[in-house]
Sequence to fold (1103 residues):
Amino acid sequence: MQVETFKDQLYSKLRQKSQPQNDKALILLQSIENNLNLEQRTNPTAYIAQLINLLKSTKEGQDAIILLIYKILPSVPIVVVRKLIPALLEEVSKVQLDNLSLGVFGQILILSAKEDLNSPKMQQLFSLLLQQTISDKKKLRKQAVKTLQTFYQQKALDIQQVPEINEKLRTHLKVNLQENNECAQHSLTLLASLNNLIPYSILVDALYVIIEEIQNMDSKYYPFIFLSLEQVLQQNVGADQAEKLIQQLNLLQPEEVNAQHAYIQCIRQCLLTLSQSSLSLAASYLPSTLSNMAELLLQNNQKLMQHCRLEMMTLIEKIGKSTLSLKQDLAEDIMNLELESAGTLQQKYIATLTYLFSNRFDHANILDVFAKFFATIDDRTFDHCKELVKEFVHNKSRWPHVYFEKTFGQLCNGVSMSLLLSTFPLRTEGINPLDKDFDEKSNCWILYILSKYANPNLEEFLDFLFPLTNLLSLVSNANPSHEQKIIQNILFHVLEIASNSKAKIDAQHHPKLNQFIELTLNYLKKDHVFFEKLLLMIAKLFSQLITFPQLQNYSKQYISTLAKLVEQNNCTHTLNAIKVMSFAAPKQYIQEAFKKNIEKLLSSKDKLDDRALNNMDIVLQVVSAQQMTSDLWDYCINFTKEMINIPIIQKKIYKFLAAIIPKVHHTFLAEAYNLVLEAECESSSRQKRFQVILQLEQFVVSKLENYQTFIQQFLPEMVVAIRDNNIKTRLLAEKLIENIGQRLLGLDLLDQFISMVFAGLAAQSNVMKADAVATISLLVDKFYTNLKTEFIEEMTKLILLLLKEQNNEIFKSIILYVKVLIKHRHILNQYLFSQLLNIDEVSRDKNIIILKRLLMKLSKAYTVTAESLIPQEHIKLFKNAIKIEKQQKKKKNKRDQERELNKQKWQEKKNKKQKDSDFESDEESDEQQDQKQQQGGMETEVEVENNLLLKYDFKKEQFHFEDAIKQKKKVQEKEQQKQSTIQPLVEYKDGKVIVNEQKEVLGQKRRREEVNSDNEEHGQKKITRNDRKTKDVVHIIKESGSTFKSKQKAGGDVTVKGRPEPFAFIQLNPKALNKRFKNQANKAFEEVFQKKSGALKGVKAHK
Fold:
């Protein structure tokens, strides 16, 4: 090491922390350095020699001397250190022992030779370090453990040849692990730090001591003990030690929360370690371990419950899955210990999980456990778990419907649909869909979960769900009844399951496959409620069946039926279905249909109607299944020539070209190239045209001459499209220009290509100039690192000259170009921004927002020199832009904080609402249970309520669960609230008419509710404030008398039982005394005294 480097590092280490000890060491180091400079000896060895001499001669400042020795000793050559070891040991041993002297001893031990480790002094030094690991002083303990860890890391090979050192460590751990709890704790710290470094035998002996003494240790040390054991167990210890340890851990019941956290981590690691040696042993202890963890789920500490739940899920995933897969003939394991049979182990494991169904456990704490357990089940192990799954479904009223669906959905991922439907068979016959327990009896709740999570085979669908497809004949579009809605719910999910089914080769021999194909074909009608669903199913499922002979036989019927539907009403799903069927149909039939549709289009090209456009859509779908021969290619090219310049169909013609170009050899593409080059292009079809050009670009890239011609012919069109209104067109143009630039870069022609684009700046149109600048910006952005700085500077000067045009489009493109330069940290000057900002005031004001955004980017990219680039007269604008940026950033941070706060509040409100609803439903269920017990356990039909009912949401098109008790309670509360709020204004009590008026408050304006006779129950109607403003009715009509009006055509009034005799009541308003309302005052009475011309006549009277 060089002297300067050594001294610099030493000074920097001492100056890192401002401490008195470091300050003394700096003064001492400066003094030694001055002396050594006089003697011309400045290497680390000289410093160590001076420090040893000082240590011999003086007793003052020994702490600073030891500190410098500790810092300098690693820089001294090892050969020199080994010579200085005797002197260092002699002098440092005289100093009071602290962490620095202990560190020096550790360095001596590490730097010593292999032969020296056998010396008594080194053995004594090692014993000293071991003794300090259980010292009362924390710093000494920490330094000793750190030193021993470094010693075992660096001297591993040497220690193996010195058995005395490992024996000392073994004895130290055995003795101190049996001492008081503090010594045991410190020894565990040492054991955990040396876990992967010490020999396996020492680790095993230490574990035996821990197993024997763990019951006698103080519980306050449990957290540390368990965490240390977890680290020790991460090394692959033997099954014997892990088994004995887990036996001891199962006997412990820690009460402190921190100890419980560490306990479940330790017991989980212990079981995982045991499973690596003997899976059968781990499986035998899994039930008791899960049972102990389940008891911790009953604690009130939320973090503990969450931690315990996660550890249970880990054990279920790692060991539980293997436990279910154990073979039945398992008798004993590798240690020749008699074990229980695999069936017994599995029964205990399942029984432990079944225990979680008891009311002691909260559903939120156990549903994740069951979800993980269900994820470990497959077809082979489902029989062991069938009863538990049934119990889970039986208790589904306890779980929130969303969590039940997710948990049961994990089972659908591993278990086949056939096993699930055999366990929960669908029953629709003999059950009334209108019954409240229809979902329970029919098991239709499983259909939604299967449609969302299952991946069934086609054979399973045909075996179990195909009979339900016959319900297609019962559904109706026009005002379906409630029963028909339930049938629609079932069919929706049945068809969804069919769409998700996977078809294998064996499915083609299934006897019900032909029936299923015929059924779907019969109901492909536009007016059928499941028409689109059937089309989606055909596109997804039948794409797997294209090689099946059955589908080939029916494909003609499918295509003809779907083609008629397209003529009626064009539909994307219908066209996709035609595309799928075209691959399955006979090639000769498809080719004939293809040519037939093309002939129809050619015959009607002078007058293209909707029907002709629909034929074109069919052609586009069928062309993907064509094998493009030379004859068919000529046929297609002739068709394209005739139709490509017709605006109404041009977009579809380009789409047609894009479909057939990849199907032929590149030698045929010259015709298509010339055709596209000569064709006119509508703005609506530009996107599809660029797709074809992008395909043709791959064709001409092989020859440079053809490629240059291609660029010259299509470059103007690409430049114009770079700022097209359609974003897809812009992206295609950018990709095409980037491809060209990439190919020319390999030929060293990129500068020439940019110069060709640069020629567009001389165009007469300002829009063309703006397009050229935007294209140059794109090329500079993509290939900045490949362009010379001088070339970019020349382009920049010429582009800035366009500012004289005072055109808004050009200005925007120049802004884009400058942004690209800022993005790549180009060297900018003040001339650029003076030209950019010193434009006319009108243009600057019109684009002030764009300019400010540009200045914001400038301030971010050039934090130091940004202000110097702005002209002095525009500094205010620059500072304003920075200010706006800070304000926007501040507002954004504030919005983010408010959004996060609102999210937390919403979550808290949601959790509180969920807890309240759960509490209410629990109270309701308890009340019903008490009532049943009082009635001697007799249950009537009214008392039987389903806690959870599976219903169907037509908007979301999915099933969902509803709490029947809660829904009923809500309806009752609403009715009671409605009845309590309605107080009749006019009542009849004890033969008297009583008018109920609101109490007036002194000092406030009197507010009354005006009523009229339109209410059926009370004959009252509220008159709104707007009605009063119209001044049509001044007085307040409390009862107009229409309540007593005859419902028949007879005139006069009728008496009502329980009501007073017919009357009318008008509350007079003092406002009527005002002259302005004099004319309107009589209108209230006109409603009561409705004048009729002629005499009153009875019902049977004739005119």
Q: What stands out?
A: The longest strand covers residues 948-953. The first helix runs from residue 3 to 15.
